[in-house]
Amino acid sequence: MKVYFDSVGCRLNQAEIEKMALDFRSAGHEIVEKAGQADIVVVNTCAVTAAAASDSRQKIRQANRAGVSNIVVTGCWSTLAPDEAQSMAGVTRVIPNAQKGCSSCPDSRRKSRLVRPRAYRKDAAAGNPQTHTGLH
Q1: What is the pLDDT of residues 86-98, one digit of tens each?
Q2: Which domains does the chain show, CATH number per domain?
C-alpha cells in the first residue's frame, strides 16, 4: 500500500510522523512523496495557534483534492475538534492523541492505536487495500 504522511506543528508531531513512516516501511509499504500518489494519507495536526489549526485543515483538504478518499487524522487539532475533523471530506478516521500511543509517551507499554501497518499488508494481499483502515 502507498502511504503519504503530513504533519503540522511541533517537533513531537514531526517525530511521530517519522516513526509512523518507519513502521509502515518496515511492514513493506511504500511511502510516497505526494498525497495524490497514496492509497491512504495520515495527517498529524496542530492547534497551538489559530494559524496551525487552519494549516491542519488545509492539509486535509489538499489530500482530498488530490483524490485521496482514505484520510486518517490525528494530533492536537483533531483531538480538540473531532467532530469537525470527522466531517471533512475524505476523512475516514480520527485518532485522538490519547489513543494513538507512541514510544515517547510516559506509558510506553501502550501499543500504538494509530499505526498497525501489518493490517494493511493483509488487506492489500486480499485485494482490498481500503476496506479496512488498519489504524486502530
Answers
A1: 999 999 999 998 8
A2: 2-117 (3.40.50.12160)
